[in-house]
């Protein structure tokens, strides 16, 4: 890890003091390949969400259990954005989150309204974006995914990420 930072990252980036660099942040590589990432990665997230209108990660939702943040965190972002709009904190809202493997706490949580104003302080105060907290809050271990098999994952009544809460 240290050698990689010294010989590759520092020569390109330069001074890295004050910057946190993640190289294999779990500190180990125990399992890879089929055993670690079992499940079909089918339709791309763009097909199941907003097309090219909203930024998104790669991969797919279907075939992944809720511990995979590309699924659960996307649902949480939808839940939070809808809640902010319903509570009249924005007319439109984009919620973004970034994670590092092996870290429960997100590296970044951001929310902006239609004017480009940050709502991150509200989001960080009211919502927990750690994967297990998302799973618990949205009840993602329940058998609720059948209706997501066709016509996308968003905009369907009865799914927990479509609910709105008062904040």
UniProtKB/TrEMBL annotation:
Keywords assigned: ATP-binding, Magnesium, Metal-binding, Nucleotide-binding, One-carbon metabolism, Potassium, Transferase
Family statement drawn from the similarity comment of this UniProt entry: Belongs to the AdoMet synthase family.
Pathway: Amino-acid biosynthesis; S-adenosyl-L-methionine biosynthesis; S-adenosyl-L-methionine from L-methionine: step 1/1
Superkingdom, natural source: Bacteria
UniProt GO molecular function: ATP binding; metal ion binding; methionine adenosyltransferase activity
Residues in S-adenosylmethionine synthetase C-terminal domain copies: 32-162
Protein name in UniProt: methionine adenosyltransferase
Enzyme class: transferase
Co-factor(s): K(+); Mg(2+)
Organism name: Candidatus Portnoybacteria bacterium CG02_land_8_20_14_3_00_45_8
PROSITE patterns membership: ADOMET_SYNTHASE_2
Gene3D superfamilies (alphabetical): 3.30.300.10
EC number annotated for this UniProt entry: 2.5.1.6
Keyword flag Acyltransferase: no
Gene Ontology biological process terms in this record: one-carbon metabolic process; S-adenosylmethionine biosynthetic process
């Amino acid at each position: 890890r240290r050698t990689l930072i010294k010989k590759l990252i520092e020569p390109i980036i330069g001074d890295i003091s004050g910057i946190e660099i993640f190289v294999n942040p779990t500190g180990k590589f125990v399992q890879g390949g089929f055993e670690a990432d079992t499940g079909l990665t089918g339709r791309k997230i763009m097909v199941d969400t907003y097309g090219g209108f909203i930024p998104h990660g790669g991969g797919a939702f279907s075939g992944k259990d809720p511990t995979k943040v590309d699924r659960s965190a996307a649902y949480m972002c939808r839940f939070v954005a809808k809640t902010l709009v319903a509570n009249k904190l924005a007319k439109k809202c984009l919620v973004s989150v970034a994670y590092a493997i092996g870290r429960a706490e997100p590296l970044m949580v951001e929310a902006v309204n239609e004017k480009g104003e940050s709502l991150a302080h509200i989001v960080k105060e009211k919502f927990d974006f750690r994967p297990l907290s998302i799973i618990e809050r949205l009840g993602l271990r329940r058998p609720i995914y059948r209706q997501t098999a066709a016509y996308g994952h968003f905009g369907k009544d009865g799914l927990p990420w479509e609910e709105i809460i008062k904040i």
